[in-house]
Design goal:
Largest sheet of chain B: none
Order of helices and strands of chain B: HHHHH
Structural class of chain A: alpha/beta
Family (chain A): Belongs to the SCO1/2 family.
Strand order of the largest sheet of chain A: 2-1-5-4-3-6-7
Keywords (chain A): Copper, Disulfide bond, Membrane, Metal-binding, Mitochondrion, Mitochondrion inner membrane, Transmembrane, Transmembrane helix
Disulfide bonds (chain A): 136-140
CATH class of the largest domain in chain A: Alpha Beta
Shape of chain B: globular
Strand content of chain A: 5-15%
CATH superfamily of the largest domain in chain A: Glutaredoxin
Strand content of chain B: under 5%
GO molecular function (chain A): copper chaperone activity; copper ion binding
Oligomer: heterodimer
Radius of gyration of chain B: 16 Å
CATH architecture of the largest domain in chain A: 3-Layer(aba) Sandwich
Shape of chain A: elongated
Number of helices of chain A: 8
Number of domains of chain B: 1
Number of helices of chain B: 5
Helix content of chain B: over 70%
Helix content of chain A: 40-55%
Subcellular location (chain A): Mitochondrion inner membrane
């Protein structure tokens, strides 16, 4: 880093042509500005020629050039360093290890095939986690289709290292059979998860998901559930990476995921 | 609001096909409302009776309420959405 500084410094000295011209003219105007008082002094002291030169002192054109060149060199050097620092900070912000949100946590739920499923079953795969309900008019199916499209695109490149999950926020009506019928229309490997009201509430809290179902919802009722509509992207260690909203396009999601997967593989020196 | 008094059994929508049917009949009904210059569903009189009965047949009550409300909201939010879109594009450019 230091050698870089000096080389930059030297290079700015070795080409001081425009500045030299500027500083010489600057110093000469300075001298000429002082001239009137000098002529006054001359009336009582004749041997001022040498003193004048010493009064001007070290401020010779060469010194001025060096001064300006050093200033300019330092200025550009610091600007360059500042920019590098900012770029590094930006990279850190984007990287997975710094400033990770505390989303997710342990849970145990039941799949749409009636098997138990816990957070441990998420490990070793990149997971897309979506919260919704089967009686959802339009947003949930659209988001699940998006997850499907993203999965297809990613798996054509990386193989089956991704796992989509659908967690019901409407446990009163979303029975395992209802979930099974519903999910048949989406990605073939999507896992539907449900639990009782308490465990639903628990996992929603862990994922910072809001949902409006009351605890005593009528299992035959015709109601809608208001809920957060993010797709949570979790890494193979079960850690949160990113939440994709409705406005993220499949292309944007794929791009972000690829970056993450590549970074992870570089970090760990292996594939999932 | 006719559908509140209807005594039809509740519509259960689980499959993609069910949803498609509901959305299509909703779109037809809303197009009919648009032609009549009516924003709020139910205020059109009897001009869209055919479309309306299809809509009620294919969609659950809760969905109908939701779509009708959203139709009004969407109209009110048109300007807001436009603004946020512009903002989002600007943010993306940065």
């Amino acid at each position: 880093m230091f050698s870089l500084k000096t080389s930059k410094f030297i290079s700015s000295i070795s080409r001081p042509r425009p500045w030299a011209a500027l500083t010489t003219s600057l110093s000469s105007t300075r001298v000429s500005n002082r001239l009137p008082s000098r002529t006054c002094k001359r009336s009582y002291s004749e041997s001022t020629g040498a003193r004048d030169r010493s009064a001007v002192g070290v401020f010779t054109p060469a010194a001025a050039a060096l001064f300006v060149a050093t200033g300019a060199g330092l200025f550009y050097y610091f600007q360059y360093e500042k920019q590098k620092l900012q770029e590094r900070k930006q990279k850190e912000l984007e990287s997975r290890s710094v400033g990770r949100a505390h989303v997710g946590g342990p849970f145990t739920l039941t799949t749409h095939d009636g098997k138990p499923f816990s957070d441990k079953d998420m490990l070793g795969k990149w997971n897309f986690v979506y919260f919704g309900f089967t009686n959802c008019p339009d947003i949930c199916p659209a988001e699940l289709d998006k997850v499907g499209a993203v999965m297809t695109s990613l798996e054509s490149e990386y193989g089956e290292i991704f796992q989509p999950m659908f967690i019901s926020v409407d446990p009163a009506r979303d029975t395992t059979s209802q979930m099974k019928t519903y999910l048949a229309d989406f990605h073939p490997r999507i896992i539907g998860l449900r639990g009782d009201y308490g465990s639903t509430k628990f996992i929603c809290k862990a994922y910072r998901v809001y949902f409006s179902t009351p605890p005593d919802a009528d299992s035959n009722g015709d109601y809608l559930v208001d809920h957060s509509i993010y797709v949570y992207f979790m890494d193979p260690d079960g850690k949160f990476v990113e939440a994709f909203g409705q406005s993220s396009t499949p292309e944007e999601v794929v791009k972000r995921v690829k970056k993450e997967v590549e970074e992870w593989e570089k970090d760990k020196g292996r594939k999932v | 609001m006719g559908w509140f008094s209807s005594s039809k059994p509740e519509v259960s929508i689980v499959t993609r096909q069910d949803r498609k049917q509901c959305w299509e009949s909703r779109d037809l009904y809303f197009q009919c409302l648009d032609r009549g210059g009516v924003l709020e569903a139910g205020k059109e009189g009897s001009v869209c009776a055919k479309e309306k009965s299809k809509y009620e047949e294919n969609c659950a009550k809760s969905w109908i309420e939701y779509f009708n409300k959203r139709r009004i909201l969407a109209e009110q939010q048109k300007d807001l959405l436009l603004q946020s879109k512009i903002q989002a594009q600007e943010a993306k450019r940065r």
